[in-house]
Amino acid sequence: MTDYVIDVHDLCKSFGARRVVDGFTLQVAASEICGFLGANGSGKTTTIRLLCGLLVPDSGSGTCLGLDILREAPKIRQQIGYMTQRFSFYEDLTVVENLELVAGVYEMTDSGAAIDDIIARMGLGDYRSDLAGHLSGGWKQRLALAACVLHRPKLLLLDEPTAGVDVKARREFWDLIHDMAGEGLTVLVSTHYMDEAERCKRLVYLADGRIVVEGTADTLTRESGIVTFEATGEDVDSAARQLRHAPGVEAATVFGRVLHVASTERSGLEQAIHTYKGGALTWREVEPNLEDVFIHQLAAREQPK
Amino acid sequence: MNGFSFNRLRALLRKEWIQVRRDPTTLRMIVALPIMQLLLFGFAINGNPKNLPTGLLIAEPSQYERTLVTAMRNTGYYDIRLLSSEAEGEKGLAAGDLLFVINFPANFDRSVDRGDAPSILVDADATDPSAIGNATAALGQIATALNRDLPSMRQTQTAAPAFQFQVHARYNPEQLTVLNIVPGLICMVLTMSTMFITTLSITRERERGTMENLMAMPVRPIEIMLAKIAPYIVIGYLQVALILVFSAVVFQLPIRGSLPLLMLALGVFIASNLALGLTFSTIAANQMQAQQLAQFTLMPSFLLSGFFFPFRGMPTWAQWIGEIFPTTHAMRIVRGMLLKGNGVYDILPDLWPIALFTVVILGVAVWFYRSTLD
């Protein structure tokens, strides 16, 4: 039919009375890196679990790798790699032993070579015989990624893979993801980090279990209609405190010595800046960033118009 | 931050109390299980076992025999049924279906009337001396039971007894309690050590978060189950070997049956315990619940299996409950093989229930095992 790797329609899932995923529809093409964004509790993890068959949707249908997510979940599992939010490999096994377990479960015929290969690729060589429980956060994530891609899946589902990992490790992690996407792997990754979101080819923003906006980082910022200004000068902190609650201002945030204000209404924002009577500030208009877009989305959901 | 602070203690107590309340299932189990156990064991356990299964062998029906059998029945200790052959009696004793076989010699009445004081042979299964103790003692009371029936001439000769009971304490002639306790202990020790290994296995995976990953991989539930059981059978065998060597050396426990057969039977028994623990682990929401469930079955395994209290002394309903537990059957197999020298045909009636239990309980585990996180 289609050559979408993920093609799901109207997925719904409730836990008790709480509807966590509510009419989720998504198509992801091959070798795309699709970023999943959204507040905590917006349904990202549940959606990922629905896609890999760990949860059964209450309604809706769709395919993953051309296989029905309801009827062919076991076959889907064979071809995907799923990295859980919480480290879920065995801490009392060494790096190699964990990988050997995975290779065995997926019945890989070239397990020895594949393990050596992935260890070299992930730079895990020095830690081969270390217990997974003794690895630091960044190396644990790497082991988890190695274990998820060892069986050469066609689709990788990563649930906040870099939470709590330092910047360098995160960057290296993403370099690996891009390398693998370049080789044809499709990746769906959830994250709270905007720098990571910017590295995704396509972004999907979830709120209350449904997609609110989607597109490339550029499209999202352009179409958001957000106007942002930056100010430098004395006492940006007190300026931020005042402007945050001023009419016409949606967000006022300080980054070091720079004040960042944003709104979807240019006139209101300019008015607020104009009427601000504080220390001398130098203003200039800047391009909105993804964070502005998502703060705006979050705020929009909190205060229904 | 120095000394003991009641305020800090109160804060900690409050947190513990909240945590207890947040797990109502465990709380319910903690309240309900002891009550169930109290009622169950209070009614089931009997230190003075009565109505013990007894086989009767007679050459021909006779008046004195009828009187004596009635007298024996009246003691309350004997539940007597007629056997057709000595072989049936032997088989019954070996299998543990009979605790006594009473054998009246031919021409009993005539021998009594002639003043020959014939012997009534009582074969007693002495593997559990406490089970037959009171019943054997009660035989003394019925020595005079025939007096009314005897011809008047014989009634006056009170000095010589009209007949005598000759009790054979089979399998354990010296009636050593240790020979009964140690084979039972072998089963109990194995139950405790093996069941608790698997009881925590699945709940641990769940609590550590490794379960989600395991489920995301193409693994079948039965594969997980078997992998959780198999290694511990080996460990169980190691325990068996140690226990048997110690029993033989320290307690001079005889091994009269075939050792390979005993090992095979114990392998099945170990598997049943591991499967049971695994099922608890699958059903329970957390490790605490799993342990509660395991402990709940440990008590009846101790008390209703014939380990502490004679199995045949329990009411029938309690015996039925006891029959469910693998430990009950294992105890018969081990006692039978060590003390009675039982062979494969003697232990089969107790081996298949253990095997069936294992298969059924493993099926329950697979059934309850959730291959999704729902």
How would you describe this protein?
The complex is a heterodimer of chains A (305) and B (374). Chain A is an alpha/beta fold and 305 residues long. Chain A has 2 domains: 4-220, P-loop containing nucleotide triphosphate hydrolases (Rossmann fold); 227-287, Alpha-Beta Plaits (2-Layer Sandwich), CATH 3.30.70. Chain A has 11 helices and 14 strands. In chain A, helix 3 (95-105) packs across helix 4 and helix 3 runs parallel beside helix 5. Chain B has 2 domains: 52-170, 3-Layer(aba) Sandwich (abc type-2 transporter like fold); 177-368, no CATH class. Helix content of chain B is 64%, strand content 8%. Chain B contains 16 helices and 5 strands. Chains A and B meet through helix 2 of A and helix 10 of B.
Any descriptors?
heterodimer; A: 305 residues; alpha/beta; Rossmann fold; Alpha-Beta Plaits; 4-stranded antiparallel sheet; 14 strands; 36% helix; globular; B: 374 residues; abc type-2 transporter like fold; 2 domains; 5-stranded mixed sheet; 16 helices; 8% strand
Number of helices of chain A: 11
Biggest beta-sheet profile of chain A: 6 strands, mixed
Shape of chain A, please? globular
Question: Strand-and-helix sequence of chain A, N→C?
Answer: EEEHEEHEHHHEHEHEEHEHEEHEH
Computed Rg of chain B? 27 Å
Topology, number of strands of chain B: 5
The chain-level mean pLDDT of chain B equals 87
What is the string of helix and strand elements of chain B?
HHEHEHEHEHHEHHHHHHHHH
Shape of chain B: elongated
The fraction of residues in strands of chain A falls at: 25-35%
Spans of chain A with pLDDT under 50 lasting ≥5 residues? none
- Characterize the largest beta sheet of chain B: strand count, sense, and whether it forms a barrel: 5 strands, mixed
CATH architecture term of the largest domain in chain A: 3-Layer(aba) Sandwich
Q: What would you report as the Rg of chain A, rounded to the nearest angstrom?
A: 22 Å
Distance linking N and C termini of chain B: 45 Å
Q: State the helical fraction of chain B.
A: 55-70%
